[in-house]
Amino acid sequence: MYVGRIETGKSYKKIIFIFAVISLLLIGFVLYASFSKADIKITPKKEIINTEYEVSIKPNEDLDLTQLQNIQGRMIQTEAEETQTITDIGLKTIDTRATGTITIYNKLDESQSLLPHSQMLSDSGILFRTDARVVIPAHSKAEVGITADQAGAQGNIEPTHFTIVKIWQNWQSSYYGETSAATTGGTQEVKVATQEVIDQAQQQVIDSLYQKGLENLRTQLKPKEEINEKAIKKEIVISEASVKPDTPTEEFAMKVKLKLIAVIFDEQTLIDLGVARIKKKISASKEFTSSDADQTTYEIIEYHPEEGWAKVKVNLVGSAISKLGNQVFDKEQLAGRNKEEVEKYYAVMDDIEKIEVSFSPFWVKSVPSLKDHIEITVEK
């Protein structure tokens, strides 16, 4: 018996294909909707705010809690003295008087003599003086040392003819001087204790004394107390160099006596006072973010050792940002935008410093439409 083959119609294959495509699209959409995410980080513009205020730091028994500018603490002090021999002195070119040896010729019929400091004028117009008395026999010659009248390089001259200044003019061609070698020494490189060198030496001794003084202060601390080195005042009681500025020398002594005054207090309490002042200064549209302890400075402007208290000027650096409006967090306005479009959306907002936009996974190129897949964070 012959059994014929039943053929599957083409219409069934087409339906199966369409169903498969739709299934893949649905799976893709589900995956996209489930995993797509946009992260938007907003950095508001930051305003740096300085506040300066004075605080009295007093022992507990002297503390008046009704005065907001009083906080608990105390002051301590110490002194240290040291003399150092300074040999690290730089070379400096200085003007000195050039020297040399001159031969005096006497072609006259009688012997002649020259007293010390007799003036000898070179043909180039540089004046020298003899170093000692010299006698020159008739029709003979004699040597004597000479020194330039003025310090400086102009005294370094090549061998030349000299005229004896204070003699009869008619004798000057028969009674004169000549050098056979150049005069030298108009300038010299020597170690000189300049004001800069003395200042550096002073600082060197101060640095050494500061460390010694700091150790002395630490011996005065009570349990749990700490020294804030930014709140230490240095006072130079004595500063003496054994030489005056611009003195040529191989070494000199530097003597310094240093006083250190320190205030002991709880830094956070002091900063809290400043933060409260900053918060009062900023407008309602601003939000205080933080204070910078590293940039906070202290200056002891008044101290009373007998009573153990001091007044400190504080300069506190804080920051504030603008409170961002609702449009910043409007996710409906962001949906469907690509990275560039998101950046342009925020670019017109004056209170924003920077925007960072990232999408995930890698195939996502725009902000998802689902709000819970959009994360907006503010970097303070």
Radius of gyration (Å):
45 Å
User: End-to-end span in angstroms?
Assistant: 88 Å
Write down the secondary-structure element order: HEEEEEEEEEEEEEHEEEHEEEHHEE
Estimated structural class: alpha+beta
Oligomer: single chain
* Name given to the CATH architecture of the domain at 97-185: Beta Barrel
Shape: elongated
- Residue-averaged pLDDT, rounded? 88
- CATH-assigned fold name of the domain at 97-185: Elongation Factor Tu (Ef-tu), domain 3
Note the beta-strand portion. 35-45%
- Unreliable residue stretches: 1-6
Which helices and strands, and how do they pair?
Layout: H1 10-35, E1 37-44, E2 46-58, E3 70-86, E4 91-95, E5 99-106, E6 112-114, E7 119-122, E8 127-130, E9 134-136, E10 140-148, E11 161-164, E12 175-178, E13 187-193, H2 195-218, E14 232-241, E15 247-248, E16 252-265, H3 267-281, E17 286-291, E18 297-304, E19 309-322, H4 331-334, H5 339-347, E20 352-360, E21 374-378
Parallel strand pairs: 1-21, 2-3
Antiparallel strand pairs: 1-20, 2-19, 3-16, 4-13, 5-10, 5-12, 6-9, 7-8, 7-11, 8-10, 11-12, 13-15, 14-16, 17-19, 18-19
